[in-house]
Amino acid sequence: MLTRIDHIGIACFDLDRTVEFYRATYGFEVYHSEVNEEQGVREAMLKINETSDGGASYLQLLEPTRPDSAVAKWLDKNGEGVHHIAFGTADVDADAAGIKDKGVRVLYEEPRRGSMGSRITFLHPKDCHGVLTELVTSAPVESPEH
Ligand code: CMX
Ligand code: CO
């Protein structure tokens, strides 16, 4: 069951400048940052609030690390902006299977590694009314590393 908005993914050209915008404008601080080579991103997670399912909602700021990455390709075409939304669930495998049965393309056979040791998969935007949609199960114990 999908129980929260886990994050909104925002593509940017310059992660440090974008982080500074969110800090200076809204007072949001970086909760966690990492490079995910498989996804081709350098990212910062800004925690916005905790949620009633025991998780939290974040903004995920994304800068591409290589030109052939999904985010680089999207930035070339669209410029900066909202790239995807992510719903949180306790069981990404079960939710992805159930959604696949409804005829929506799930992009990965098996969930892959996301931020902070989470397990993630994506639904094709063309099957979701134009919205690239991610499903996330957080790691059992979140251990932020800066
Ligand atoms: N939102 C909405 N539509 C999108 C999109 C997005 N983020 N990315 C691509 N599309 C649309 C394109 O506009 C294009 O539409 P048209 O055919 O009408 O022009 C169509 O989808 C195909 O796009 P493309 O540019 O040819 O790109 P690809 O098909 O090569 O890749 C996708 C699209 C969704 C399969 C790819 O971006 C992907 O695998 N995404 C999942 C991984 C990812 O996004 N990782 C980065 C985030 C990591 C994280 O959150 O941790
Ligand atoms: Co994401």
TrEMBL record:
<dbReference type="InterPro" id="IPR037523">
    <property type="entry name" value="VOC_core"/>
</dbReference>
<protein>
    <submittedName>
        <fullName>Methylmalonyl-CoA epimerase</fullName>
    </submittedName>
</protein>
<dbReference type="Pfam" id="PF13669">
    <property type="entry name" value="Glyoxalase_4"/>
</dbReference>
<feature type="domain" description="VOC">
    <location>
        <begin position="4"/>
        <end position="138"/>
    </location>
</feature>
<dbReference type="InterPro" id="IPR029068">
    <property type="entry name" value="Glyas_Bleomycin-R_OHBP_Dase"/>
</dbReference>
<dbReference type="InterPro" id="IPR017515">
    <property type="entry name" value="MeMalonyl-CoA_epimerase"/>
</dbReference>
<keyword id="KW-0479">Metal-binding</keyword>
<dbReference type="GO" id="GO:0046872">
    <property type="term" value="F:metal ion binding"/>
</dbReference>
<dbReference type="GO" id="GO:0046491">
    <property type="term" value="P:L-methylmalonyl-CoA metabolic process"/>
</dbReference>
<dbReference type="GO" id="GO:0004493">
    <property type="term" value="F:methylmalonyl-CoA epimerase activity"/>
</dbReference>
<dbReference type="InterPro" id="IPR051785">
    <property type="entry name" value="MMCE/EMCE_epimerase"/>
</dbReference>
<comment type="similarity">
    <text>Belongs to the methylmalonyl-CoA epimerase family.</text>
</comment>
